[in-house]
Design brief:
- It is a single chain.
- The protein is 40% helix and 17% strand.
- It is α+β, with helices and mostly antiparallel strands.
- The protein has a domain at 106-178: 2-Layer Sandwich (Alpha-Beta Plaits).
- It has a 4-stranded antiparallel β-sheet with strand order 2-3-1-4.
- Strand 2 (133-140) and strand 3 (143-153) form a beta hairpin.
- Residues 10-22 have a biased composition (Polar residues).
- InterPro entries: Cell_div_SPOR-domain, SPOR-like_dom, SPOR-like_sf.
- Residues 1-22 are annotated as: Disordered.
- GO terms for molecular function: peptidoglycan binding.
């Protein structure tokens, strides 16, 4: 296969192409130019028609009229008698205040692990986030478990705040529930 010299090749070489195809260009959009010319001339004619056929009497009347202004009311409301002020001061408003029942203290459990060393490592990681966790040993039917818990929290909002702190250091899966 022969090598081709693409660098020194002439830009408009017509090798193997029909000369009619290369020299053919798209025609100028005469229709669009004609349509634009018609629209512009129609707009100019419309402006000229409005200017020359305006009623001169009506134009002069509009020019001579002063601007319309609203009359300013100078009469202010009379102040109410002083009894009204006394009535306002002595009036009582009754409002029913409903007390929000707190569901009690909350706790958050982040893990339940088989090995105490793993629970201690998680507790240390939580301590680096600035939170205090505790490890509780529980015995069940399937062996000994070490639970890493935080709390108690007075409100669920505080527990959610600490849960978000733990998520930032990639400790996920913590669950919040009522204190037991």
């Amino acid at each position: 296969m022969a090598q081709h010299d693409y660098i020194n090749r002439k830009p408009n070489s017509n090798k193997g192409k029909n000369n009619k195809q290369v020299s053919q260009r798209k025609p100028f959009p005469v229709f669009l130019a004609f349509a634009a010319l018609v629209l512009i001339s129609g707009f100019i004619y419309g402006l000229w028609y409005i200017k020359t056929n305006a009623d001169p009497v009506h134009v002069k009347q509009v020019q001579k009229q002063p601007p319309i202004t609203q009359p300013v009311e100078t009469a202010l409301e009379k102040p109410r008698p002083p009894e009204f002020l006394e009535e306002i001061k002595s009036h009582e408003i009754k409002v029913d205040v409903k007390e929000i029942k707190r569901k009690g203290p909350y706790q958050m459990q982040c893990a339940s692990l088989r090995k105490y060393s793993e629970a201690e490592a998680l507790k240390a990681k939580i301590a680096f986030a600035g939170l205090v966790a505790e490890i509780r040993r529980t015995e069940g039917s399937n062996g000994v478990w070490y639970r890493v818990r935080l709390g108690p929290y007075d409100s669920k909002r505080k527990a959610e705040s600490d849960k978000n702190k733990l998520k930032r250091i990639h400790i996920v899966g913590c669950a919040i529930w009522g204190w037991t």
